[in-house]
Design goal:
By secondary structure, this protein is mainly α. The protein has 4 helices and no strands. The chain is rod-shaped.
Length: 90
């Protein structure tokens, strides 16, 4: 018997089992590579947390500013309108 057959017998695998292992291993590596690339892409597309928080606050202040501009009756609304308008984020 040749060495290849002896190893297959002692390990309890056949050539087809070995080929299936290689295909499975390559597939697993390919999936891991795709996941790693996706994670890098998400990190490149996202902003740092501080900038994201400031952007969210800015958008909230803009919405509040537009709502306050529509209110004409209330003195408190006018005071808040001045405060929001003078904010450095808007």
């Amino acid at each position: 018997m040749d060495t290849k057959n002896n190893m297959m017998i002692s390990l309890g695998v056949s050539v087809s089992d070995h080929n299936m292992f290689i295909v499975h291993r390559e597939t697993t590596l390919a999936v891991s590579l795709i996941k790693a690339c996706a994670n890098v892409r998400v990190q490149l597309d996202s902003q740092p947390e501080e900038i994201d928080n400031l952007e969210r606050i800015r958008m909230q202040l803009e919405v509040e500013l537009h709502a306050l501009e529509k209110e004409t009756d209330y003195t408190a609304s006018k005071v808040r309108l001045v405060e929001v308008s003078s904010s450095s984020l808007v």
